[in-house]
Design a protein that fits this description.
Distance between the termini of chain A: 41 Å
Shape of chain B: globular
Oligomer: heterodimer
Strand content of chain A: 15-25%
Number of helices of chain A: 10
Number of helices of chain B: 6
Largest interface: A-B, 52 and 43 residues
Helix content of chain A: 40-55%
Number of strands of chain A: 6
Distance between the termini of chain B: 59 Å
Radius of gyration of chain A: 20 Å
Strand content of chain B: under 5%
Order of helices and strands of chain A: HHEEHHEHHHEEEHHH
Largest sheet of chain B: none
Largest sheet of chain A: 6 strands, mixed
Chain lengths: ~220, ~120
Amino acid sequence: MKRRLALMSLSLLALTGCVTQPTKKDMSAFTAAAPRSILVVPIVNKSLDVDAPNYVLSTLPIPIAEKGYYVFPVNTTKVVLEQEGFYEGERIHEQPASTLARLFGSDAVLYVTINRWDAQFALITTTVTVDFSYRLVSKNDVEIWQERKQMRYQPDNSNNNAASPMGALLAAVISAAITRAAPNYMPLARQANQQVFILGPNPLPDGPYKTAEKP
Amino acid sequence: MIRTIALAGCLALTGCASKGLYQWGGYEEQLYSAYKDPTKVETLRLKLETLLQETQQAGRRVAPGLYAELGTVYLQAGNRPQAIRYYELERRTWPESTLLMTAMIQNLERLEKGTQGDKQ
C-alpha cells in the first residue's frame, strides 16, 4: 500500500513536471550565454558528513547530460584540480567561473553546495534531509541559472497492514532502526536533481544535444 | 522503499523524456561505490569497459565524459598509454573536450617519453 501510494504521488509529480508553471524566471542571460558544455566542479559541503560531496558529485552528470549538454567528466575534473593543488570545494568555488572555464575549455561552470545532509533521530521516527544550492555561471562570470532544493524523507510508519497498535509500533521501531543504521541519502539526492534540472518550475533549458534530437 | 523511490525516479524521468539520450550502464552507481570504497575502482573500470564496448557495437554515441573517466581510472593505476588512448577517444567523440583532452594527452606523452628514456 505504502509502495503504491509513493509511486502514485511520484507519477503525479512527473505529470505536473511537464505542465508549464506560471512562475517562470527570466532566462535571457542563459539564452545569451547559450552554453554547450558544463563543468561540474567538486562540491562545497556545509554538512557534517565528509563523504557527502563525492556522493553528490556522482549524481550530477547523468541528469545534466540527458538535458543535452556536454558534461565534463566529474571524476577527471576532480583529479585534474587536485593535481593543480585544489582539494577543497571551498577553494574551488572561490575561483571565478572564467578562470575554471579557461582551464578546462567549458562554456559554463556549475557550483553545487550541500546545505544539509542529515538524519534526525526522534525516539521512533527518523527524518532524512538533503538540501542543495545550484549555481550555473557562464565563462564570462555571469550567473545564468540558480536553484535551491530541499528533500525530506520520513519512513511512513502508519502501517495499515499491522493487525494491532503494538504491531504498528514494532514496525515503526524496526524501520527507524534500519534508517538509523544506514540512512540512505542517494535516492533523495537524485530526486533533488530531478526536481531542479527537469521537473521543477525553473528547469535547466534543453541543451544542444537534446534540441538537435527533436525533429 | 529504496527501490520504490529509484523506480519512481525512473518513472519521473520517462514522464518527460520518452527515452534517454545515452547508455550509462551503472556509471553513477559504480562511481559512488568507488568513492565509498576505493578498492571498488576495479569494478568501475570493468563496468565502463563493458559499457563502452556495447555502446560502440550498437553504433551509438558514448555518453559525455565516459571515455575520459575510464582514461582517468587507468591514469591513477599508472597505465599512461591506456589513459592516452581513452582521452583520444573522448576528444574524437566530443569536440567540447578538445582543450582539456589535448592538454592531458600532451602532458602524458611528455611523461611517457621521459620514463621510456629511463628504462632503456
